[in-house]
Write the structure tokens for this entry.
Amino acid sequence: MKRARIAGHPVHPALVHFPVALWSVTLAWDLLGLWTGAGVWWQTGFWCLVAGTIMAVPAAIAGAMDFAALEERHPAEGAALRHMLLMGSAFTAYVGAVIVRAGPQVPEGWRLYAALSLSTAGLALLAAGGWYGGRLVYHYGVGRD
């Protein structure tokens, strides 16, 4: 299978910045909303969460293509698998947060605690998966010419 490239440049690294940035700030907006009581921060967090989740799909597809293109028994295979599993788990946590929140309004009751818990878990998984992504590029040279 071929790697996802445009004009010779890898696509996956270019696409991942959007969901990573949007998902990372979601928890900050939610905590700001919790602290101030202002609904606008919950709305901002919700839309960042939704946009990050949507933008993660093409990034994941490009990443899966790159994973499938790794040579058999490549030294980076283990790190690539951990990266993929952690990022898939982060995606699952953030999709769960979208479902639990059920809209841009301020969540109440169990939905509030579930949304914050899922966003916190998502951020931890995102950080761990991102570390492995960096390891793939900077230690193993995956995606570089």
Residues 10-138 form one domain.
